[in-house]
Design goal:
This protein is an alpha+beta fold. The chain contains two helices and three strands; from the N terminus they run H-E-H-E-E.
Length: 82
Amino acid sequence: MTSGRRTVEGNRAVGCAPNSRHLRGDALDFVPRAGENLQQTLRNARVYFGPNARAEIHNGTHVHVTLPGYGRVPLFGARGAR
């Protein structure tokens, strides 16, 4: 996981939309593990988070997972949360 919930300042610093789900604790970002590609990370996220999660490859660089209404993703990410 590279990013979870973000502060308003952290969200602005990484250039995300002002209404980002990261601000509500409903979103996480992942990059592939060693030996894995984005498609594999996407499949793994869909299996792990289940049918209510929305998972997509974002900007060709990471997998973005939204958990609508969850609101409990912890503050996480050097640039996004602090």
